[in-house]
């Protein structure tokens, strides 16, 4: 019954929405001013309709290829450190995306209205939804949101490698990098425009810093230690002096490092959602890799776009 209602709504809605094809051939649909992979629309509508946030929930938000995998590993480890010892961590045997599910690609994709009530607290969920698209109860409850973003040039390059590696639309011929970059600059990519996605969480964090923690991938790379502590404080579970003395912060940082995760057997083989290679989530993990793939003119175009889109917001990226 519920499923039928959403299907009818979806059918009607789809007829009113603009559609596009991503550079890799994946269909995109424009909903609420953002370009969504079409497979995400129905689960997002379901999550908006049914998801009930608890005050103890932690929501990890990002645009794809901004450090989501890292954030999932870190927050899971920090939040569960008193329940699961580091040498027993599920991250040693499961990919971070298996440990922390997405609302739209896992939970509400498999079922219209999954029963999430009995999951142990704190429940940790991830999403690529823009801030304004989040289920109301996420914004209205006391739950915490942690957003990670990344400089747009590295995000674009990372995204391109990821989808060339995990070619889903087997028959589609991917557009060349110039055409793909042009679409990116127009905001036509998964969960784009990136500027609006990032600004949504940036502004929410400025308005309510207790609610939204805004992180940059580059800052995490520069020094992970203060960020592990910051995340712990933000979720209301600061490290005790004893824990610091025992080196728990360093243990978590090491566990979640790309060097450690990419060398685990589980992340060398196998697939997420049957189609995404576990290994493809751990490519270089560097800041500034764009320089090996994009021209100075492309970088200038993004700098100009950022200058106009972020004007007056206080949001900046080092390029
Ligand atoms: P690159 O493609 O530039 O290497 P997401 O997790 O949002 O899908 O983002 C993937 C990007 O984060 C990839 O960037 C990947 O290598 C990097 N990454 C994954 N795990 C990481 C970790 N533990 N530490 C740092 N970077 C990581």
Output the CATH class name.
Answer: Alpha Beta
Task: Provide the structure class.
Answer: alpha/beta
- The number of distinct β-strands equals 9
Cα-to-Cα separation, first versus last residue: 51 Å
Let me know the average pLDDT: 95
Topology as a string of helices (H) and strands (E): HEEEHEHHHEHEHHHEHHHHHHEEH
Which kinds of small molecule does this entry bind, naming each only once?
Answer: adenosine-3'-5'-diphosphate
In CATH, the topology is named Rossmann fold
InterPro entries: P-loop_NTPase, Sulfotransferase_dom
Organism: Sesamum indicum
Domain Sulfotransferase: 55-314
Protein name: Sulfotransferase
What are the SSEs and their pairings?
Blueprint: H1 2-16, E1 19-21, E2 27-31, E3 34-37, H2 38-50, E4 58-62, H3 68-79, H4 96-99, H5 103-110, E5 124-127, H6 136-140, E6 144-149, H7 152-165, H8 177-185, H9 194-207, E7 212-216, H10 217-222, H11 224-234, H12 241-246, H13 248-255, H14 258-262, H15 265-268, E8 271-272, E9 276-277, H16 296-309
Parallel strand pairs: 4-5, 4-6, 6-7
Antiparallel strand pairs: 1-2, 2-3, 8-9
Helix pairs in contact: 2-5, 11-13
The structure holds adenosine-3'-5'-diphosphate (A3P).
Family: Belongs to the sulfotransferase 1 family.
Protein name: Sulfotransferase
InterPro entries: P-loop_NTPase (IPR027417), Sulfotransferase_dom (IPR000863)
């Amino acid at each position: 019954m519920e499923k039928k209602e959403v299907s009818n709504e979806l059918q009607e809605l789809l007829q009113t929405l603009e559609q596009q094809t991503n550079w890799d051939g994946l269909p995109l649909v424009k909903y609420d001013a953002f370009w969504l992979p079409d497979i995400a629309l129905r689960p997002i509508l379901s999550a908006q309709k049914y998801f009930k946030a608890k005050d103890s929930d932690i929501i990890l938000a990002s645009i794809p290829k901004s450090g989501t995998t890292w954030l999932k590993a870190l927050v899971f480890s920090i939040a569960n450190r008193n329940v699961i010892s580091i040498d027993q961590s599920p991250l040693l045997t499961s990919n971070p995306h298996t440990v922390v599910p997405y609302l739209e690609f896992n939970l509400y994709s498999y079922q219209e209205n999954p029963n999430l009530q009995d999951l142990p607290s704190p429940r940790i969920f991830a999403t690529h939804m823009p801030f304004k698209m989040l289920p109301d109860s996420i914004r209205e409850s006391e739950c915490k949101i942690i957003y990670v973003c990344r400089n747009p040039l590295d995000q674009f390059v990372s995204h391109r490698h990821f989808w060339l590696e995990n070619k889903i639309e087997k028959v589609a011929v991917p557009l060349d990098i110039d055409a793909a970059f042009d679409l990116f600059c127009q905001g036509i990519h998964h969960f784009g425009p990136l500027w609006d996605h990032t600004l949504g969480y940036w502004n929410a964090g400025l308005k309510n810093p207790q609610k939204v923690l805004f992180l940059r991938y580059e800052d995490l790379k520069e020094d992970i230690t203060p960020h592990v502590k910051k995340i712990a404080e933000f979720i209301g579970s600061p490290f005790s002096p004893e824990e610091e003395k025992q080196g728990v912060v360093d243990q978590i940082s090491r566990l979640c490092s790309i060097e450690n995760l990419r060398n685990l057997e589980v992340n060398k083989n196998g697939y997420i959602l049957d189609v995404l290679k576990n290994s493809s989530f751990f490519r270089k993990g560097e800041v500034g890799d764009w320089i090996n793939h994009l021209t100075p003119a492309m970088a200038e175009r993004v700098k100009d776009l950022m200058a106009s889109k972020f004007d007056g917001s206080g949001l900046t990226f080092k390029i």
